[in-house]
Specification:
five-stranded mixed sheet, Cytochrome Bc1 Complex, Chain A, domain 1, globular, alpha+beta, 42% helix, 420 residues, 19% strand
Length: 420
């Protein structure tokens, strides 16, 4: 196997994944924690994202302000993000300078300060971020659709959190969340790049293995009950454009139907990142003048989530006509298997997107950690093979199973002009 991955578990439960790639003198290092908005209770929504912000505020060894300078001085870049299921931190550095990133991550796993003044300052930043999002019709509509789609499961709230909670969360809440989830037995370190595995593993053990194992992090287990009928909602707000978002239930990333649905997604809307103007929904809605644009996307999640389609409406056409056209296209896929040639093109397109997203060293390190949040590395290594095995009857079956009107949420944003 080309560029095999070495996988090791440290004595404290931390998982290490190493992939040598000697194409360039670069190393990308990612630390993943299995904690995201999925783990947040009512009253504490947004706490994972806020904790991520606080991890950049420094430790005694790496005070706030020196981190950016140190990474930049060494020619590296770094960032972090929070998703529904995980929080991840990365540094991509010249190979000879990667030790700085490893020392930083091992230190802030246990020694981040969470200074009260910094918490107060960051509260203002995150509330401002939330307010900025609220100026976007698609954020507002998407949030309402989430609330309607999930009555029980914590996927019901946006990753940034509800405004009421952003005002109420305390410094102690954040620190408690940090200590509960930022433990080595809830973490994965994934590295790809120009290193020797034996020497790198020795250094990782020196830095990370002394960190004590923590208690198993608390988990919310709240399965969403099956929807018994279509939900429709309308939302009014500023702007000049009407949008509709349609959300269908979508299985988690390890479900056997996941790959057939990826091909169905490519048929309907094109694979993410590539041109979608030759795909079925674009031809049926945009080329016919029923809508300005249409797009769709899914996510690879631990628990079942959603497949969402967004229609950007024309001001001179009734939105119901676009929805009727969408339903007609889905019904075609349900009633009759798609032509073999179209399936092959859709598979090829989905495979190309996957390849584009795996091509550089940073992406290679990303995929190792990302798949560890919901599966194992074989999910990544067998991805293309599983896509290639999808048949037209598979696509027809999942279209019939998941794309049922009585299981969806349809939300429409009605603009009321530029002012509120």
């Amino acid at each position: 196997m080309k560029n095999p991955v070495t996988q090791v578990q440290l004595k404290n439960g931390m998982k290490i994944m190493l992939k040598e790639i000697h194409a360039a003198p670069i190393i990308s290092s990612w630390v993943w924690y299995k904690v995201g908005s999925r783990d947040e209770t009512t009253g504490k929504t947004g706490i994972s994202h806020w904790t991520e912000h606080m991890m950049f505020k420094g430790t005694k060894k790496f005070p706030h302000g020196m981190l950016d300078k140190a990474i930049s001085r060494e020619g590296g870049r770094w960032n972090a993000s929070t998703s529904r299921d995980s929080t991840r931190y990365y540094e991509t550095m010249p190979a000879a300078r990667i030790d700085l990133a490893l020392r930083l991550e091992s230190d802030r796993m246990t020694k981040s300060i969470f200074d009260a003044k910094e918490v107060a300052s960051e509260r203002t930043v995150i509330i401002s971020e939330r307010e900025g999002s609220e100026n976007e019709p698609m954020f507002l509509l998407g949030e309402e659709v989430l609330h309607a789609a999930f009555r029980v499961h914590p996927y019901q709230h946006e990753i940034i959190g509800d405004m009421a909670d952003l005002y109420a969360i305390t410094r102690d809440d954040l620190y408690k969340h940090y200590r509960a989830y930022y433990v080595p037995n809830n973490a994965v370190l994934s590295l790809a790049g120009d290193f020797e595995t034996k020497a790198m593993l020795k250094r990782i053990r020196e830095l990370f293995e002394p960190i004590p194992m923590g208690n198993p992090p608390p988990r919310l287990v709240r399965p969403e009950p099956e929807r018994k009928g279509e939900v429709r909602l309308t939302l009014e707000g500023p702007g000049e454009t009407m949008f509709t978002q349609i959300a269908y239930p979508f299985p988690n990333a390890t479900h056997p139907d996941y790959f057939a649905l990826q091909v169905l997604e490519s048929l309907l809307n094109g694979a993410s990142g590539l041109s979608y103007k030759t795909c079925r929904l674009y031809r049926a809605l945009v080329d016919t003048g029923l809508a300005v644009d249409v797009s769709g996307w899914s996510e690879s999640t631990i628990d079942p989530f959603l497949y969402r389609i967004t229609i950007v409406h024309r001001s001179d056409r009734k939105p119901e006509k676009a929805l009727t056209a969408l339903d007609a296209e889905i019904k075609k896929l349900q009633d009759k298997p798609a032509p073999a040639g179209e399936i092959r093109r859709a598979v090829k397109q989905a495979r190309a997107v996957f390849a584009y997203g795996s091509e550089n060293i940073t992406h290679q390190a990303f995929w190792m950690g990302h798949t560890s949040m919901f599966a194992d590395y074989s999910w990544y290594t067998t991805y293309l093979k599983k896509l290639a095995s999808v048949t037209a009857p598979d696509v027809q079956r999942v279209a019939q199973k998941y794309f049922q009107p009585n299981r969806r949420v349809v939300g429409t944003y009605i603009p009321k002009g530029k002012g509120r």
